[in-house]
Automatic annotation (TrEMBL):
In the N-terminal section; belongs to the aspartokinase family. The lineage of its organism: Bacteria, Pseudomonadati, Bacteroidota, Flavobacteriia, Flavobacteriales. Its cofactor is a metal cation. One of its GO terms (molecular function) is NADP binding. Pfam families: AA_kinase (PF00696), ACT_9 (PF22468), Homoserine_dh (PF00742), NAD_binding_3 (PF03447). It catalyses: L-homoserine + NAD(+) = L-aspartate 4-semialdehyde + NADH + H(+); L-aspartate + ATP = 4-phospho-L-aspartate + ADP; L-homoserine + NADP(+) = L-aspartate 4-semialdehyde + NADPH + H(+). InterPro entries: AceGlu_kinase-like_sf, ACT-like_dom_sf, ACT_Aspartokinase, ACT_dom, AK-HD, Asp/Glu/Uridylate_kinase, Asp/hSer_DH_NAD-bd, Asp_kinase. Homotetramer. Keywords: Amino-acid biosynthesis, ATP-binding, Kinase, Lysine biosynthesis, Metal-binding, Methionine biosynthesis, Multifunctional enzyme, NAD, NADP, Nucleotide-binding, Oxidoreductase, Sodium, Threonine biosynthesis, Transferase. Pathway: Amino-acid biosynthesis; L-methionine biosynthesis via de novo pathway; L-homoserine from L-aspartate: step 1/3; Amino-acid biosynthesis; L-threonine biosynthesis; L-threonine from L-aspartate: step 1/5; Amino-acid biosynthesis; L-threonine biosynthesis; L-threonine from L-aspartate: step 3/5; Amino-acid biosynthesis; L-methionine biosynthesis via de novo pathway; L-homoserine from L-aspartate: step 3/3. Residues 400-478 form the ACT domain. This is Aspartate kinase. One of its GO terms (biological process) is homoserine biosynthetic process. Bifunctional aspartate kinase and homoserine dehydrogenase that catalyzes the first and the third steps toward the synthesis of lysine, methionine and threonine from aspartate.
Length: 815
């Protein structure tokens, strides 16, 4: 005998029931079967809802009833040949009338007793099982229906009755030994008390019914047919990368289901465990998929963690005070009072000082529990020996489960550090004595982030998903997105980094997609997005609360540079090519660096100096290894270098500056480059990264621009002034020629002083031959005394800047 159980979605409608019938037919050729079915999807909720409405004098329960009725009649009409419908319709109609009578009774009395509530809730299975049995008889005449209430006997604890296994096993054994039918269809979830009243086995209890039947008839296996390909490494609705577990031990499965893996109702394993009956979890909609085998053997693969599960809606109750220390029986009294009020304790931790005890229960029980506990410890509370019980709601338990965890060190450390890195605050910790699970209590708002990041850490071969929130999609931004698009596959396969762009914004529009914006059509998606708004962007990013979030600033905007602190404080990393923040007031720069340390959120700005050249990274390594920077000489403006390299008798200064803009070498406002401000910002950042305190005003800027050019307020006027002062620039060129030298805009730092300005560079200087838009930096340090450490290469341009930003993102991925 094999026992099959089909859940609510599997029997949701006629179309799905046909799939179920096909599976039963196929199995029945080899084995006798007992088939346990749930109510049609959603019907139990509708019944419970209707009964509550009726009891509160809300007449709309009639609508629920009508809907329930229609659902079942629709199924009958589609599944059963009209010539065979009669008998069934009479029975179903009569049962719906009984249901109506019960609901009307609740309405009239304005009351719902637990006994009536069970009688009503059980109708879903009663109706579905009869319809399925009749439908099955059309293709398998040798099949029959049996009411589980005649087999499964329980106590009268309505809502979640306890099974009397002696009587039940005997009844099941007797019934099945005498049965001639190849297939017996039975309703799940319902049973009956000694007095013959309908009882139920708890929400999700049809799994349990099937296990009870399997145990009673000593089945060779139990198959739970549902809507997913087995028991997954985490809830597949929350963790997209979760995978079905092929084999798992009874204990592990029990632990996972106890901690919230809804695919299996926790008590299900108990009856089959003793009889050593294997359980298969299979998918009705993909019967060929392997599924999960639960048995007394666990796969001893390399990963000691089998799965991660979680329970929502948890409240923590803490009882503490000196009155608990060394006083025997405090915990006993605490648990006794909870048990008296039928409050289920899901989680317990006790400080070894015995000074406090902390328990996790369902939110819904929290107020009742506090009242009862405070009453029990009334005397101690009045004497200030124990504090009134503290309640914290809206929490969630997350548990790592695995039989082999006990043989591995450091798993809890890994768990806590993974959560900590993502700013998930752990409220309480418990580790089962069996070491089959480690569970933590966290805020409900963090659960998705926690599950995904833990899943990545323990199951995805250390693949890390980086979630990018990008502001600014101009020249550089566009290249950056193209590069991610191109490299996505490579990064995933080779570096185990999965880069997703979650948000994009320009100055007009913004678009968010939690699953990742398609990088093929990001332009269209952005155009269709909502109106851009920096504050809305920040709060959406925070609310999404995704793991490994990175804010990427590819603007040159003051307002955007002012919001980094808000991200860092949420442990969201910041990558920026915008120099404004790092060259603003020293206090602000320092604050951002310390927020980055405090919240463990990288703050990277390699592209602030020398675009994609690894200048800041090199400097960081020098300093970290104990070197000290004494002097810096540098050409840091790719745009100025391009301009002075191309400026000639036949190519006017004005035209060269224009061209530099077209090629994306200048800032959007070219005056920032030509005035020397951009270079001053860069040397300032290098000086600060070298460990010195300096402000922008401390840098001497020997600008080569005439005052009138400096005073312009827009690009048009600026270019006009360049034309007007052509002679001034030509004279500079002539002087350079006369001195047999070249014009270079040089930044230097020496002896605590910094300056930027145009210099005539003689042939002997390494700066003389600096071509195109190249940058060069010379670091003179304690270790590089005579010969400086030189970094040289392309220092401007959209593609190299984008690749520098990309490199910062990858640095974060590699942490
Ligand atoms: P049924 O109606 O068939 O009894 P349930 O809804 O009770 O189905 O259970 C199946 C659902 O359990 C899945 O659709 C999935 O969303 C959820 N689930 C939660 N955790 C897990 C897990 N670890 N593995 C598989 N499914 C899970
Ligand atoms: N129909 C019941 C419920 O929804 C039992 C089950 O489906 O397992 O809780
Ligand atoms: Mg279920």
């Amino acid at each position: 005998m094999i026992v099959l159980k089909f859940g609510g979605t599997s029997v949701a409608n006629a179309q799905n029931i046909q799939k179920v019938i096909a599976i039963i037919n196929q199995k029945a050729t080899n084995h006798p079967l007992a088939v346990v079915v749930s109510a049609l999807s959603g019907v139990t909720d509708m019944l419970i809802n209707a009964s509550k409405k009726a009891a509160t004098k809300d007449e709309s329960y009639q609508n629920n009833l009508e809907e329930i009725k229609q659902k079942h009649f629709d199924a009958i009409a589609e599944l059963i040949d009209p010539s065979h419908q009669n008998q069934l319709l009479i029975r179903i109609n009569s049962q719906i009338n009984q249901l109506q009578t019960l609901l009307d009774g609740c309405f009239l009395l304005g009351e719902l007793s637990p006994r009536t509530a069970d009688a009503i809730a059980g109708f879903g299975e009663l109706l579905s099982s009869q319809i399925i049995a009749s439908a099955l008889q059309q293709s398998l005449p040798n099949s029959t229906f049996k009411d589980s209430r005649e087999l499964i006997k329980t106590n009268a604890n309505f809502g979640k009755a306890s099974v009397d296994f002696n009587t039940t096993n005997k009844r099941i054994g007797d019934y099945f030994s005498g049965i001639k039918s190849q297939v017996v269809v039975l309703p799940g979830f319902i049973a009956s008390s000694e007095n013959g009243n309908t009882t139920t086995l708890g929400r999700g209890g049809s799994d349990y019914t099937a296990a009870i039947i399997a145990n009673g008839c000593n089945a060779s296996s139990l198959e739970i047919w549902t809507d997913v390909n087995g028991m997954f490494t985490a809830n597949p609705r929350i963790v997209k990368q979760a995978q079905p577990i092929e084999t798992i031990s009874y204990q592990e499965a029990m632990e996972l289901s106890h901690f919230g893996a809804k695919v299996l109702y926790p008590p299900t394993i108990q009856p089959v465990l003793k009889a050593n009956i294997p359980i298969w979890i299979k998918n009705t909609f993909e019967p060929e998929a392997f599924g999960t085998l639960i048995s007394n053997q666990s796969e001893t693969n390399i990963n000691p963690i089998k799965g991660i599960s979680h329970i929502d809606n948890i409240a923590l109750l803490t009882l503490e005070g000196s009155g608990m220390v060394g006083v025997a029986g405090s915990s006993k009294r605490l648990f006794e009072v909870l048990s008296q009020h039928a409050i289920n304790v899901i989680f317990i931790t006790q400080a070894s000082s015995e000074h406090s005890i902390c328990i996790g229960i369902l939110n819904a029980d929290a107020d009742k529990a506090k009242e009862a506990i405070d009453k029990t410890f009334e005397l101690e509370i009045a004497q200030n020996k124990i504090d009134p019980c503290i309640v914290e709601k809206d929490l969630c338990i997350v548990a790592l489960v695995g039989e082999n965890m006990k043989n591995h060190q450091g798993l809890s450390g890994k768990m806590f550090s993974t959560l900590g890195k993502n700013n998930v605050n752990i409220r309480a910790i418990a580790q089962g004595a069996s070491e089959r699970n480690i569970s933590v209590v966290i805020n409900e708002k963090d659960v998705k982030k926690a599950l995904n990041t833990l899943h990545e850490r323990f199951f995805e071969d250390n693949t890390k998903q980086l979630n990018l929130f990008v502001m600014g999609v101009g020249n550089v931004g566009e290249k950056f997105i193209d590069q991610i698009h191109q490299q996505k596959k490579f990064l995933k396969e080779n570096l185990k980094i999965n880069v997703q762009v979650i948000a994009l914004s320009n100055s007009r529009k913004m678009v968010f997609d939690e699953e990742g914006i398609s990088l093929k059509d990001w332009k269209v998606l952005l155009e269709q997005g909502e109106t851009a708004n920096v504050n809305a962007f920040i709060s959406k990013t925070k609310d999404l609360n995704l793991r490994n979030s990175i804010f990427v600033d590819i603007t040159a905007n003051y307002d955007v540079a002012a919001i980094y602190d808000q991200f860092l404080k949420q442990s969201i990393a910041v990558v920026t090519c915008n120099k404004i923040a790092c060259s603003s007031q020293y206090e602000n720069y320092k604050n951002l660096k310390s927020l980055s340390r405090k919240y463990n959120a990288p703050f990277l700005f390699e592209t602030n100096v020398g675009a994609g050249l690894p200048i800041i990274d090199t400097l960081k390594h020098l300093i970290a290894s104990g070197d000290k920077v004494n002097r810096i000489n540098a050409v840091l403006s790719g745009s100025l270098n391009f301009i002075f390299n191309n400026f000639s008798d036949s190519y006017s200064f004005h035209d060269v500056v224009k061209e530099a803009g077209v090629q994306g070498f200048t800032e959007p406002d070219p005056k920032i480059d030509l005035s020397g401000v951009d270079v001053a910002r860069k040397i300032l950042i290098l000086i600060r990264e070298s460990g010195y305190t300096m402000e922008m005003e401390d840098i001497e800027n020997r600008s080569f621009l005439p005052k009138e050019c400096m005073d312009t307020t827009n690009n048009e006027d600026f270019f006009a002034s360049l034309l007007k002062h052509a002679n001034h620039f030509n004279a500079l060129l002539a002087e350079a020629r006369a001195k047999d030298s070249r014009l270079k805009f040089v930044a230097s730092f020496d002896n605590g002083k910094a300056s930027v300005g145009l210099q005539f560079i003689a042939k002997e200087s390494p700066f003389y031959n600096l071509e195109g838009k190249d940058n060069i930096v010379e670091f003179y340090t304690d270790r590089y005394v005579d010969q400086p450490l030189i970094i040289k290469g392309a220092g401007a341009g959209a593609a190299v800047t984008a690749s520098g930003i990309f490199a910062d993102v990858i640095r974060i991925g590699n942490v």
